[in-house]
Amino acid sequence: MRPRHLLVVAWWFPPLAGGGVHRPLQFVRHLARRGLRVSVLTAAPPGDAPRDEGLLDRIPSGVRVLRVPLLDPFRIWARIRGARGAAAGNGTAAARAPAPARWRDLVTEAIALPDRWLPWVVPAAARAAVALRGDEPELVFSTSPPHSVHLVAHALAGIFGAPLVLDFRDPWIGNPFRRYVAPIFARADSRLERRVVQAAAQVVVNTPALERQFRSRYPGIARLRTIPNGFDPEAFAGLPAPEGGGSPGRVEIAHYGQLYGLRSGRYLLEALALLRRDRPDAFARLRVLFVGSIDGEAAFRALAAQLRVEEAVAFAGTLPHREALARQRRSDVLLLLGPENREPELQVPGKLYEYLAARRPILALSRRGGAIAELLETAGVAHERAEPDEPDAIAAALARRAERGGEPAVGDAPEAFGYDRLSDRLLDCLEDAWRARSGPVRAGA
């Protein structure tokens, strides 16, 4: 028999770099190894997007990748505004009074539901419908964010007459990073989520907390399961053993990944300022390293200088994935920033699972009772936690880490979080969807 054909719809996929790339990539790799024919519908990365060309080597040779560019109206508008601003500055065009901010917000929101990738939906669906004619997939699997990929997958599942499986790496509704300018847009977004959830044969989420939220919102949901994020054991093969000591004479606390939005890092800088004032001995022993991009890096550096803690922070920029993994094992402590939101978080950053495999102590700035604390307790790994927006508590945790200094490797990487095992669980989910293709998931009205 010919192997079953799976279509994966994922915006984040190599050569794009970032935390959202690894779950789709690893599922594609391991499902292809298990005998599925896999096609991927993904982005044509814009020129200024972060890239890691080395990840392309991880895509199995038999996987067909369809790339569709995004005609991003927000980028186009930014270029137009930049050109107009330059022209106005040169005296070649009259300055125009800006439109009321409220109207701009409403228009922006209207063309960005569920997110700014909405203009990708039609061209992506059309590209796949044409390219896969005569070789139709037997199941469509989409993984978000961005959540617009679920709209693409929903359309293609209808075109191909195939079951639909949805994977949520972050919440769609109830995401602390998402704010609406008017209630009508929140209601419209909620209806979009409900439409695709009701059409799905299976729904996958990546934390128990997110599963509880889904079951609360959709009391009748039948086919819902949690498959967490994970790490690739093969990616750690040949790397140096975990040993710490990334910065001789100091305790290095390293954060890997992007700082943005509610993961601003500003309370961490305020905690360092408190430490400098109250515990200068501990402050002198600490070095906080940021590996990855920082939205508004100039402002972040300026805040560090204003608080007079710039000597305790360092910036390594973005590293290729394998180099970042090796660097993690040389850090004394790995730092995780949860969102600075009042409610316990529902999502766990994908890098936390790689932290587990790095086998270094973890300092998590996250909410009590949130998904991050729940995972750390369940995994039984060496860690310390402080509330993400309480500088006093963060400063105390930093002082304790400074006193303890470097530590040997801690524990073993939990095998249950290896993507080889997680892909077996996803394959079971896909098999259930094939068997029950005539019975979509039930959701509350």
List descriptors.
single chain; 445 residues; alpha/beta; Rossmann fold; seven-stranded parallel beta sheet; 15 helices
Structural topology:
Blueprint: E1 5-9, H1 22-33, E2 37-43, E3 64-68, H2 73-89, H3 101-110, H4 121-131, E4 139-144, H5 148-160, E5 164-168, H6 183-199, E6 202-205, H7 208-217, E7 224-226, E8 251-256, H8 266-278, H9 280-285, E9 286-291, H10 297-306, E10 313-317, H11 321-329, E11 333-337, H12 351-358, E12 362-365, H13 371-379, E13 383-386, H14 391-404, H15 419-435
Parallel strand pairs: 1-2, 1-4, 2-3, 4-5, 5-6, 6-7, 8-9, 8-11, 9-10, 11-12, 12-13
Helix pairs in contact: 1-15, 4-5, 8-14
Q: Which range best describes the helical content: under 10%, 10-25%, 25-40%, 40-55%, 55-70% or over 70%?
A: 25-40%
Topology, number of strands: 13
CATH domain class of the largest domain: Alpha Beta
What integer value in Å does the Rg equal? 23 Å
Q: How do the strands line up in the largest sheet? A: 3-2-1-4-5-6-7
Number of domains: 2
Q: Strand portion, in percent?
A: 5-15%
At CATH level 3, the topology of the largest domain is Rossmann fold
For the sheet with most strands, the description reads: 7 strands, parallel
Taking the alpha carbons of the first and last residues, their distance comes to 40 Å
